[in-house]
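Hi X.,

You mentioned you wanted examples for the new student's onboarding notes, showing what a folding record looks like when two proteins sit in one file. Here is a clean example. The first protein comes first, with its sequence line followed by its C-alpha cells.
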Amino acid sequence: MAEEQRCYGTESDPNCKTATTAEPTMSPTQTSEVAAGSLELEDYDLKCLFCRIARGQEPSTELLPCENEDLVCFKDIKPAAPHHYLVVPKKHVGNCNDLKKDHVELVENMVAVGKTILERNNFTDFKNVRMGFHMPPFCSISHLHLHVLAPVNQLGFISKLIYRANSYWFITVDYLIEKLRT
C-alpha cells in the first residue's frame, strides 16, 4: 500500500503534492468505506480541542485505554486530585444543556469508563469519588466532558469550590441523569 503524505498548506515542501495534482490512492468504494467507519464531519468541530484529542490529532495528550468505541479518556492537564481524568465523547456535543433524554445512556457509559479507569489505576473506594460536569458558562472547553476526581477528600480549597457538588457551576452525574429523565 502506498504511503500517503499529508500537506497542510506548506507549499515550500517539494515532496508535497496539492490536491489538484495528487493521484487518488483509493477507489471510490474504499473511500466510502473509510468515511463510513470514521466520524461524520458534522460530528466533529475542527476548532474544538477535545474533538482533535478524540481523533488522536493532539500528540501531547495520551489517551488512556478505553473499552467504549464512542468515548476517549485522558488525564486532566490541571489535576485537582491525584486521580483526575476526563471522559469525552468522540462525537462533538457542546455541553450539558445540549443533552436530551436519549443521552442518558451516553452519560451512563461515560460513568462506566470513568470507574474502569479508576479501577485500572488501583482506586476502588467509590464513596470517595466525584464525577460531574461543569455547567455553562463555566465550561473551559465547549465539548461535553465528565470530570472523574478521586479521592475527593484530597481536593484542595480552591478545587473544593470549583468541583462543589450540585452547585450553580458543577453538577454530579446523578443530578444530570435525574434531570434528563424528567
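Then the second protein repeats the pattern, sequence line and then C-alpha cells:
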Amino acid sequence: MLQPFRCGISRGDFRQRALTKLTVINSLLGHPVLQSLHIKVGDKAELTKAFTQNDVVTFSALTGDTNALHLNEDFAKKSRFGRTIVHGVLINGLISAVLGTKMPGQGCVFLSQEIRFPAPLYTGEEVVAAAEVKRLKGSIAHISVSCKVKESGKTVMEGVVKVMVAES
C-alpha cells in the first residue's frame, strides 16, 4: 500500500510557497497574478463622436487607405452604401479611446479583438462607443464593445476585446 507523501510544511506554508512560486513564474511570463485591479465585471464606459469628412480624409492620408468608398462621393453613390462611409478601423479607434482613457484607463494594453461591422457609418452620424467588462482573468479583462448610431440605434461595430489592465 502506498503511503501518502508527507513533508514538514504546514498547509498554510505550502499555500504561501505555491502562491509565491506561481506569482514569480507568472511575473516572468509577463502576467502578474497578485495585483489590485481598479475595474470589476460589469463596469461600463462610453464616449460619443461624429466623424467629419475631414476626419476621414486625414485618416486616409495617415494610413494610405484611399479606398474610393471613403473619399469619392460619385463612386460611393453607385455602391450599395449610396454615399461615402467612415473607415471601419477609424470607428474601431473610438473603442481604443474608451479603453485607454476611460475604462480600464491609462496604462492598459490592447491585446486582441474580434469585431464585426454589421452596418456602415456615414460622416455626420453621431456614434456612441461603449465598453463593458464581461470577465476578468488575472490582469486580463474581456470586454464587450460596440458602436451604435445615437439617433437610430443602428449598430456599426460590435465585438469583444482583451486588454491587459495596469496595476492600480
